[in-house]
Amino acid sequence: MKQHDPQLVDPHGRRFPYLRLSLTDVCNFSCDYCLPDGYQCSEKKQFLTLNEITNAVAAFADLGTYKIRLTGGEPTLRKDFVEIISMIKSTPGIEQIAVTTNGYRLEENIESWVEAGLTHLNVSVDTLDAKLFNSLTGHNRLKKILAGIDKALKLPLAKVKLNAVLLKGINSHQILEYTGLIRNKALSVRFIELMQTGDNLEYFKRYHVSSQALKNELFSNGWTEKLKDIASGPAQEYVHPDYKGSFGIIAPYSKSFCDSCNRLRLSSVGSFHLCLFGEKGYSVRHLLQSASQLDILKEQLIVALADKPKAHFLHQQNTGMTPNLSTIGG
Ligand code: SAM
Ligand code: SF4
């Protein structure tokens, strides 16, 4: 594997080769923990243009970023989504192009995304119960989304993952149902502990559950912890000799979670964020207008990184400036 030397390093010695790039705040789903009333358009936001995204990607790539995840809102709602993937693919230094999607347009479009250069796919599927899926997301589309995942598994993608937010009493007792999906498929199912955000305190109090019980269940069913690759970020992986797929757990409330942080974020309106739960963003949009601004932009990114805190303050119920994850990009 190629050696990477990211110039984005924070005062705590962490390196940041991974950018999460939000393409839009807009979403067509209304997940109970994220946008329970759907996307509300109070002010007309102008999301980053293709030109602005091109300049941002060039700057991060110059600074050693080799992985970019497109997120949102629902990133695939962008009309220029395929063009964005192609542009990133043609940027020297970027090796991995990932997307996190609700899967709404997956089955119809996955081939064109992969042709354009997509290498990694994450699809959010919080339950395998069609009725429950409908009530959680506002869309009766589970079957179509699972068909999209099956199609993706046949394409030359490096990794296909399914994300599920762990919700007490909703899906926390159903997780081993996912084993049926991964016995013969190279699919990684990742459970994410529900995080508190500015808007979801009541929901969080009611439905947050630690992933410890899930871990115990996995261990008692023969799953074992995979040795962690230093570059893999905060997820812990679990494998089983009888299964082609794997499980992953993301436990943001666990001790030392932030020690392996390897990602930075750029919001859909050009605000640079050091942490999902930070108190502020650094507006760099004015530096995304022309390729001639690249050097100043890179300098500003490096300067801002000096402020990155060692860890988030979620344990103190401090969710920073994030009302829900669709605004900065989960
Ligand atoms: N719309 C796309 C999707 O749902 O996959 C991408 C954006 S969404 C904000 C990214 C991921 O964040 C999804 O997997 C979603 O389930 C997760 N997410 C949203 N709100 C969350 C919360 N409060 N706690 C944990 N995960 C959350
Ligand atoms: Fe939309 Fe994703 Fe938020 Fe669900 S989690 S409402 S799909 S942005």
Produce a short descriptive summary.
This protein has 330 residues and is α/β, with parallel strands linked by helices. The chain has helices at residues 50-62, 81-89, 106-116, 130-137, 142-153, 179-182, 201-207, 212-220, 294-305, 325-328, and strands spanning 18-22, 67-71, 96-101, 120-124, 159-166, 187-193, 224-225, 236-239, 246-250, 263-266, 271-273, 282-283.
Number of helical segments?
10
The percentage helix is: 25-40%
CATH architecture: Alpha-Beta Barrel
Q: Which value, in Å, is the CA radius of gyration?
A: 19 Å
Q: Under the CATH scheme, which class?
A: Alpha Beta
Oligomer: single chain
Mean pLDDT: 91
Could you tell me which ligands this complex binds, including any ions or cofactors? S-adenosylmethionine, iron/sulfur cluster
CATH homology superfamily name: Aldolase class I
Please describe the biggest sheet, giving its number of strands, its sense, and whether it closes into a barrel: 12 strands, mixed
Which residues form runs of ≥5 with pLDDT under 50? none
CATH topology: TIM Barrel
Count all strands and give the number: 12
